[in-house]
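In full, the data.
>
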Amino acid sequence: MGQRPYREALTSSPMIRLRILLLSLAGAVVLAAAGYRTVTYTNLNPGREVGAVVDEFNGVKVYYNGGVNNSEGRNVSRDGYNLGIKYQCVEFVKRYYFERFNHRMPDAFGNAKDFFDANTAQGALNPKRALVQYRNAESEKPQVDDLIVFPPTLFNPYGHVAIVAGVTEGEVEIVQQNPGPFSGSRARFAMEAADGRWKVSGGALGWLRPALSLTPISR
């Protein structure tokens, strides 16, 4: 009983309370970081094995990656062209363009968000990707085979890229790699048309398209 006033006085000190708060916040940050790493680097889906084929579009396979930050090493072509980190979203879209169109991007590196160049004008050539770039909510409707780019989010600082697999008057379907251990390789986004402009939901930045000289490789 004689110790209580001393302890209460000690913990009621502003400096002591601040230290306790800072320690609590530091502990919470450490736990959050550990949880984030576990969720994003670990395959939490026991029903799928990393590297398994989960889909295919125009003859190009889509592989399962488990946690979105998992890395299975770099994939390169036989002659050394960098296709990206297995089995990230970037690796799929680059491999898709390489296998379907024999297309090599001048800049063989970059995260998903880097595929959209904010300085490239509507309908102009994106020099790093050697693809024609269109902005979301402008005059060009997405087409099948387009490479569509999504921005970073709070829990994904790298952005996301996919291939347009289908387009209707009110919807865009994409095929994607590495959407997460429990998400599917296909996703659909609503699309609105107004005043000659096409707006795809989901925050898409825009889409990139092969030039007219690029035609699919016969299989």
